[in-house]
Design brief:
With 253 residues, the chain is of the alpha/beta class. Helices cover 14% and strands 30% of the residues. The strands form four sheets. The protein has an eleven-stranded mixed β-sheet with strand order 3-6-9-12-17-20-23-26-29-31-32. It has a ten-stranded parallel β-sheet with strand order 1-4-7-10-13-18-21-24-27-30, with no helix packed on it. The protein is elongated, with a radius of gyration of 24 Å. The termini are far apart.
Length: 253
């Protein structure tokens, strides 16, 4: 049923089995499939499509022309199809918004965590592939495309036009620079910084990014770096040589 406080436009196509909770707003030409459940305070803008058996929790925003597949879940306070982050800077250094006219597509069985933001594309679409799962507070910028059955942990961020393959796993607070391509079956540890294309499947970690086996050695070496510099300073002093990094040595004293 439809709660008495919900506002539903007369042109919306709502299956009789749909539940629309208190204070929801359903704008014109929205389509919602059977057995879909909207909790309270959900906004669905004009021409959006929501498939069957979806669960949209409280305070979600679904922008115009968004396409949501079947069996999707949106946890509270997420924003789907907000305007993408695009500005042009003039000769005086002033920034002017570039209209974002694309859409967002969530394929079937996608799960979106709480407080996620998925930006609409500039011209075409931002897409989340079949069965992919986003943890809380994930940001997907405009024009990104995420493949099927990916896992993005909390705090992950993708800059604009990043393309992610299938079965990719990204640890918490991982980040990818814009206009990159990430191959299928790549796995990134928490806080990985992806600044160039990733072309080979496997496990990666670090800032800068490197294969996981190499990064474990790097981390082990870093623990010894300070003591190694002090030892080098002692050797230089014993040999009567002058270090070229005196200022850094003072910081280590």
């Amino acid at each position: 049923g439809i709660h008495s406080t919900a506002v539903v436009h007369a042109s919306a196509k709502i299956d009789p089995s749909v539940w629309i909770g208190p204070f929801c707003l359903i704008e014109e030409n929205v389509s919602i499939g059977k057995n879909t459940y909207l909790e309270s305070h959900v906004t669905v803008e004009a021409n959006a499509q929501i498939g069957t058996n979806c669960k949209i929790m409280s305070y979600n925003f679904i922008g115009s022309h968004t396409q949501i597949g079947h069996f999707c879940e949106l946890k509270p306070h997420s924003t789907i199809a907000s305007e993408g982050y695009g500005f042009a800077t003039d000769q005086n250094g002033h920034h002017h918004r570039i209209p974002q006219r694309g859409i967002v597509v969530l394929e079937d069985y996608v799960s979106i965590g709480a407080q996620c933001t998925i930006d609409r594309a500039t011209f075409e679409e931002t897409r989340i592939g079949l069965g992919s799962k986003l943890d809380n507070m994930v940001h997907i910028a405009h024009n990104c495309k995420i493949g099927k059955h990916c896992l993005l942990s909390g705090g992950t961020g993708l800059a604009g036009s990043t393309i992610v393959g299938d079965y990719v796993v990204m640890g918490g607070q991982s980040a990818a620079a814009g206009h990159l391509t990430i191959c299928d079956k790549a796995v990134f540890g928490g806080r990985s910084a992806i600044t160039s294309n990733v072309e080979k499947p496997g496990a990666y970690n670090g800032q800068p990014l490197e294969p996981l086996k190499d990064n474990l050695k790097t981390q082990a070496s870093l623990k010894k770096l300070t003591s190694t510099i002090r030892d080098v300073r002692k050797i230089l002093k014993h040999l009567g040589l002058t270090s070229t990094s005196n200022e850094h040595e003072k910081d280590l004293s």
